[in-house]
Amino acid sequence: MEKIGIITEETADFPQEMVEKYNIATVPVKFFWPEIENLPGENIFQKMRELEKRGIKSFGKTSQPSVGDYLSKYKVQLEKFERVICISLTSKLSGSYNTALQAKKFLEAEYQKRIFNIDSLNASGGQALFILKAVDLINQGKELEEIIKELENFIPEIHCYVVFGDPKWAEASGRISHFVANILKGLIKVGIRPILTFKNGVLVPVLLKTHTKDVPIALFNYLKSETEKLIKREEKIRVIITHGDNLSGAERLKEMIEKEMKNAEVVFINIINNVVGVPAGPDTISVSWSRS
Description:
Elements: E1 2-9, H1 16-21, E2 25-27, E3 30-32, H2 44-53, E4 61-63, H3 67-80, E5 81-88, H4 96-104, H5 109-112, E6 115-119, H6 124-139, H7 144-154, E7 159-163, H8 168-173, H9 178-189, E8 196-199, E9 202-205, H10 215-226, H11 228-232, E10 237-243, H12 247-260, E11 264-271, H13 274-280, E12 285-291
Parallel strand pairs: 1-2, 1-5, 5-6, 10-11
Antiparallel strand pairs: 3-4, 7-8, 7-12, 8-9, 10-12
């Protein structure tokens, strides 16, 4: 039996090959949107575009995994590992973390003591960076108590910047208020691509230092300005890019980062999962980073 294993939700946007490489158990996420089930498209974002094209006024609904979903993954990992860390999507936007805690109570006391839950206060690429940090600490052979402490201290070190293709999807899902959505839409109309970030687990707008309507350039400029001191000190940073069926934009952002920021490693590009994708919408791009 190995020492420490990891559980997370599919909201972490980890490529499947990395899930398998690190033996991570992923709890399935759920969304309900019958209007798009029979629409053409290879992913949810292409179906959302088709929905708009046909003029269908509809928005998907999402829900956290069930207690049973977590229980099944707990049991799988407890058979393989002495102890397990469950890293959840931000509790400020989802009930996943609380459900994970409730699920643990259905286990016998001896098994409960082997599971440790952490609220990442992040999602998508930010949640994936948190998991990569956990993998690093496990591979370094650190004890669980030290790993938990370092992970808790690492939460504010994760930075996730998001640009929506259209804020209406986030507003409809309740992830941003009507007031914030109108501000974002107004900025887009005058050629400015507003950027949001996770602050204490909640998406909030950032104060832009440069203005541009080009999404990859907007994200690159903000990323570079926020990491300027680290660049000068040649400190290594990890970067993850996720997107809402906007691979060309994500790849252009990656090219800019690798060309202009020699201290940055883009670990991977991945499409945003369905549950995060419902409020994010098509063409969204997100870049997450932390110190290596």
